[in-house]
Design a protein that fits this description.
Immunoglobulin-like; 9-stranded mixed β-sheet; globular; 2 domains; 3 helices; mainly beta; 4-stranded mixed β-sheet
């Protein structure tokens, strides 16, 4: 008789009960996760300070908007000089706030008219279209912390409109990256490249030195474009990031650091004529913009690798 009852008992066990065999209720499934947002910067050598006043962060597209007040303890917009956040340095705007799981189609960062940029020529208003930086969103997943960084690439995003008394900060030079999926490339640039004869037209040899980074390994140098909105032709590849090369007084080396790079393969190209590269036009050899050396590298999430020019 006992053997005959086994199939019946098995069938009862699959009846859809939420109770485990031990009688203990399973833990509830998570409905939210932790969200954090920081800002960092890839600098530009034409600015002495780039001060942005952050007011609010908003996530759109998953039910009601998720809004975070990022003002300081006095209730004033959060003031951050982006030039103090180079390389892997960052400043946190949102720290460990709970958000519902799901797809967020857009991230909006609200800034104020008080933002400004200080240059050798003077201090100018820093304008953001509609006072909002609008970026693509992300998917908030169960048991995965949504920790992100806004990486400002100022060489790509700062635009000086003709005849205006202000500078535009455009979102095209701002990347939203997941902290768990990025790495860093850093290295040295030989003096021989900094002092190449093609750089002799510069009044200051320490200005206009930069490493341009392109997604993909061993790309043809002729296909590597500048940071214009519209490419010169269909074969031109736009840079993913641009890192300034500066003189390290301690080591007496010219060095660069490109942080918050998505994991994957990259082609790196050095130029000493980044000053002639304008954000909204294509420059080339006729304007003096050429690359003097290229390297390839693979970024691994959570790691920093060294790539120097030349190898």
């Amino acid at each position: 008789m006992m053997a005959a009852t086994l199939p019946l008992m098995a069938a009862c066990g699959g009846s859809g009960s939420d109770t485990s065999p031990s009688g203990i209720e399973p833990p509830p499934q998570p409905t939210s996760t932790s969200f954090s947002l920081a800002v960092s910067d890839a600098p530009v050598d034409s600015a002495l300070a780039v001060v942005v006043y952050f007011d609010q962060v908003e996530l759109i597209g998953n039910g009601d908007p998720q809004t975070f007040d990022v003002r300081d303890e006095n209730g004033d917009p959060r003031q951050i000089d982006l030039l103090t956040l180079t390389g892997e340095s960052f400043e946190t705007l949102v720290d460990g706030e709970q958000i519902p799981l799901g797809d967020y189609t857009q991230l909006r960062v609200v800034v104020t008219d008080a933002s400004y940029i200080e240059m050798e020529e003077g201090t100018f208003e820093l304008k953001v279209p509609s006072n909002e930086l609008k970026l693509d969103g992300f998917t908030a997943q169960a048991n995965v912390t949504a920790a992100y960084t806004l990486e400002f690439d100022l060489r790509k995003s700062l635009v000086d409109p003709v005849g205006k008394a202000h500078i535009f900060l455009k979102p095209r030079g701002v990347r939203l990256v997941a902290n768990s999926e990025v790495g860093t490339i850093e290295g040295a640039v030989a003096d021989s490249l900094i002092l190449d004869e093609s750089c002799a037209t510069k009044t200051d040899p320490n200005k206009g030195n930069a490493v341009y980074l392109y997604q993909g390994a061993d790309l043809e140098p002729a296909s590597l474009g500048d940071d214009a909105d519209a490419p010169a032709d269909e074969n031109e590849i736009a840079p993913y990031a641009i890192a300034e090369v500066t003189l390290d007084e301690e080591s007496a080396e010219y060095r660069y650091e490109a942080a918050y790079l998505a994991a994957g393969d990259y082609t790196l190209a050095f130029t000493c004529q980044a000053l002639v590269d304008q954000p909204e036009t294509d420059e080339g050899a006729d304007e003096g913009f050429v690359f003097l050396d290229t390297q390839s590298a693979t970024v691994i999430a959570g790691e920093s690798i060294a790539v120097s020019f030349p190898e």
